Amino acid sequence: MDTPLHRHSLSPAPRTQRPSPPSSRSCKPGRTLVATCAMLLLLGCAGCAEQPPPGRLAPQVAIRPEARVAPDRTMARRCVGAYHARQLTGDFAGYAGLHQFVDRMVEQHGFEREYLLGLFSQARRKNWTLDYLTKSDQELKGPPAVGGWTRYRAKFLDERHIGAGVDFARRHQGTLQRATRQYGVPAEYILGILAVETTFGSYVGKDRVLDALTTLGFDYARRGDYFRGELENFLVMARDEGIDPARPLGSYAGAMGLGQFMPGSFLRWAVDFNGDGRRDLWDAEDAIGSVANYFAQHGWRAGHPIVTPLQANGRVGLEPGLSPQYSLADLRHAGLQPARPCSDDGPLRLLLLRHAGYDQYLIGHPNFYTITRYNNSTYYAMAVHELAQTFRRRL
Ligand SMILES: [Ca+2]
User: 241 CA to middle of ligand 1, Å?
Assistant: First the structure.
């Protein structure tokens, strides 16, 4: 994908050791996520998720200051992993920002300071990731290159992705149908996401999420705030789900599981779709339900169009983009005519695909925009859409 940093959710670890899936491809620059095998060890921590929701406390019950602190300390003892240190050592020793982060986790979430200092003392700085993102940031500047869509499309619209999708769909037909019924999202779009993200779990990440998020949170200035927020979500998630936070593997940006959810997306949109009481995006059923829920929560409209091709007459003077800004009259005035009847009269998103020998324009309808909520990229969403159309024909 164009943007290397994607957004969403991830899964908590299974309660048993999960073998790493075979890695069938190398890390491709330009994709959102990805990493190799996820071996998640879920050490059971039944109590970790039992913090009472704030709303449970009756308003008339007075809470003394010491009473507010005590439950948090109890929670902290339930964190998984024997980490303990009085000082920060290792790759991140001396990082003032990390000390401030630890202070915040102690004050706002009730973690034990020594636990976090011990955990971060064995975190590793991922220099390769920083070098790669610096290079990617430079490449993303400027207008889309001629042939960019042709090259991007070729990475995903191939027999490896399509064949894996057909096989996955046959194995999980009932679950896909259930997700479509429950969330109103066609199975082929769930398949399109899982194809682009991890080729259905064949490559789900090889970096420790702890290392990825700590590195990007404190050494990647451009998006440090975002990754510190995801590190916070990750630690809360690990405690809630009873996971040792040093165990989960994910992409170089911290995305996890078949659907490559970031921790914040896991907390908000992951679902337990196989009914075993855990949200586990390394599990195919939970991943299917979680992707469908993500789409539903981001505005997917069942039965509505995704894109409408436009026929161009001469040079087009309009700026394409994911913001809706044009009426049908604007498009026609610029020499763009819908190739089929279009009931959506705007404001409309004008999409541009730069093929090797020509430019192609399309209208991106609200459902197209929903796909970009998974990754804010026209090419990403278009690859998912074209894969979905292919799966629909093949299944
Ligand atoms: Ca589950």
Answer: 12
**C-beta atoms surrounding 22 within 10 Å:** 10
136 by Cβ neighbours in 10 Å (0-12 / 13-18 / 19+) ranks as middle
What pLDDT, on a 0 to 100 scale, did the predictor assign at position 370? 98
Nearest CA to 325 out of 295, 288, 281, 369 is that of 369
**Tokens, residue 94:** 């001396």
CA of 292 to the centre of ligand 1 (A): 14
The Å distance, Cα 275 to ligand 1 centre, comes to 5
SS3 for 359? strand
Asked if residues 21 and 231 have their Cβ atoms less than 8 Å apart, the reply is no
Which of these is catalytic: 66, 114, 139, 197? 197
Task: Report the C-alpha dihedral over residues 61, 64, 67, 68, rounded to 10 degrees.
Answer: 90
Beta strands in the chain (DSSP E): 207-208, 249-250, 307-312, 336-338, 349-354, 359-364
pLDDT digits (tens, 9 = 90+) for 158-175: 999 999 999 999 999 999
Q: In what order do the strands lie in the sheet with 336-338?
A: 336-338, 307-312, 359-364, 349-354
Neighbours of 359 (CB within 10 A): 15
CA of 303 from ligand 1 middle (Å) equals: 28
In tens, the pLDDT along 215-247 reads 999 999 999 999 999 999 999 999 999 999 999
Question: Residue 76: what pLDDT?
Answer: 43
Q: Are strands 307-312 and 249-250 parallel, antiparallel or unpaired?
A: unpaired
Rg (C-alpha) for the chain, rounded Å, is 23
User: Does position 276 have pLDDT exceeding 60, yes or no?
Assistant: yes
The CB-based long-range contact list for 314-317 (8 Å cut-off, 24+ gap) reads: 316/359, 316/361
Q: How far is the CA of 281 from the centre of ligand 1 (A)?
A: 8
Tokens of 76: 């902290």
Show the tokens assigned to 216.
């990007």
Please report, to the nearest 10 degrees, the dihedral formed by the alpha carbons of residues 160, 161, 162, 163 taken in order: 50
Tell me, what DSSP letter sits at residue 61? S
The answer to pTM > 0.85 is no
Closest CA to 197 of 47, 366, 1: 1
**Cα 358 to ligand 1 centre (Å):** 46
Is-catalytic flag, 197? yes
Whether cis (ω within 30° of 0) applies to the bond prior to 347 is yes
The full length of the chain comes to 395
